[in-house]
Design goal:
globular
């Protein structure tokens, strides 16, 4: 059976100031990218406002708002009307116009889905996020090409070509994705985004899955996500938290400068630039560390079990909050899940209500004295029934693995 995996490749791009280069070729300039981002946001907000007003009207006349159908068909009418009223929308990629609308439809779908806790969609202009993006579907117009000087460039549909920089591995994948004769890699779509003033192109590719040769025995592993440590594995291995003190100090320092100066002053703006830079540095460092840890776990495992921790509950805890915000365990878990799916490693999430810390992994009796929240200080304990000495986190990880094995219906290897 032929199987494919989806992957995201993030590549830094360097849009130019000019719309054409010296050789007269169309280039994806900053202004073109910004206008695409703006148009995407415009469509999202206009359609959202329309739907909101329509809902108000329905309520006024006593109709049930929940019955409002928001899908491609109904929103396409809106998009057509917008295109008549605002001719500048033509400047954007047609697929990114469509994508903005689809984002809105998905936001509503999440809102109406009772299994997901999601808020009512918010106007993009009102969001304080500094993330801005738009997406282009690949209709054979997103690929790597050579410019007239013979340099590799990314072609972003009708926006034009743009310089990029990436790793050898990513470059090769992109080349294969651009090759019509290569059926093993395909570029599905690309998201152009701006984060803290830096531009990226995120390629979503579909790649033929080739299993890596197995080196040594693969283990079944349970993982306890902690706060003092990033993760503790059921085999006793520990993955420590990343030390982010230096980056945090910088961020706090620039934040203070910003607080003490007027919003429009030069000092404020300078501090803001530095603040964003340090924040980005911290995020990059963390991402890199998480990816390495995830790769290490996934490479050596055939089954990974984690507990769906109630992280929101933790956040209310004053002492934990700081450490969690810097070391986002949710991000780690998401990366782990994605990687497991990519590498075909079985991934099991057990309920957050399972008392993994309280059970003795040897005799399976519950020790009520140990609880997740109150006695975080207790690092190790002795079972009052079978007198086994437990490390709190390793014991929890073992229980998580046992529960996961029960769910998949196998026993310990
Ligand atoms: Zn026991």
């Amino acid at each position: 059976m032929v199987e494919f995996v989806r992957k995201n490749l993030e590549v830094r791009i360097y849009p130019t100031k000019m719309d054409r280069n010296d050789d007269g070729e169309k280039t994806a300039s900053i202004s073109k990218i910004e206008s695409n981002i703006g148009i995407t946001r415009f469509i999202y907000d206009k359609e959202l406002t329309f739907i909101k007003n329509f809902e108000k009207l329905l309520i006024q006349y006593g109709y049930n708002v929940n019955k409002l159908i928001i899908n491609d068909k109904s929103c396409n009418v809106l998009l057509k009307m917008l295109r008549v009223d605002y001719s500048f929308l033509k400047k954007a990629e047609s697929s990114s116009r469509q994508q903005a609308q689809r984002d809105l439809i998905n936001a509503f779908k999440r809102y109406y889905d009772p299994t997901i806790k999601s808020d009512y969609p918010v106007l993009k202009t009102k969001k304080k996020s500094n993330k801005n993006s738009f997406r282009i579907m690949n209709n054979k117009n997103v690929r790597i090409t050579k410019d007239k000087k013979g340099h590799d460039k990314i072609k972003l549909a009708k926006l034009g070509i743009v310089k990029f920089r990436t790793s050898k591995e990513y470059r090769e994948l992109l080349h294969r994705g651009s090759d019509k004769n290569d059926e093993t890699v395909k570029i599905k779509h690309v998201t152009v985004k701006k984060v803290n003033g830096i531009y990226y192109a995120v390629f979503n590719i579909k790649q033929l899955y080739i299993p890596e040769p197995i080196i040594g025995p693969k283990q079944q592993v349970g993982i306890d996500i902690g706060c003092s440590k990033l993760a503790v594995l059921s085999n006793g291995e520990e993955i420590p938290n990343l030390d982010l003190n230096k980056e945090t100090d910088n961020i706090i320092r620039y934040q203070k400068t910003m607080d003490h100066h007027d919003q429009y002053s030069i000092r404020y703006r300078e501090a803001q630039i530095q603040f964003n830079k340090s924040w980005q540095k911290l995020l990059n460092k963390r991402k890199d560390y998480y990816n390495k840890a995830v790769n290490y776990i996934v490479k050596n495992s055939c089954l990974v079990v984690v507990q769906n921790e109630n992280i929101i509950l933790w956040k209310n805890d004053k002492n934990l909050s700081h450490s969690i915000q810097l070391n986002a365990p949710r991000d780690f878990l998401n990366r782990l899940e994605r990687k497991c799916n990519q590498e075909r490693v079985k991934f099991v999430k057990i309920s957050k209500y399972y008392p993994s810390t309280q059970i003795c992994s040897k005799c399976h009796k519950i020790n009520k004295k140990i609880s997740r929240r109150e006695n975080l200080g207790i690092r190790d304990w002795e079972c009052p029934h079978c007198h086994t000495h437990h490390d709190r986190d390793v014991n929890a990880a073992k229980n998580i693995l046992n529960k996961g094995l029960q769910i998949v219906g196998t026993t310990m290897q």
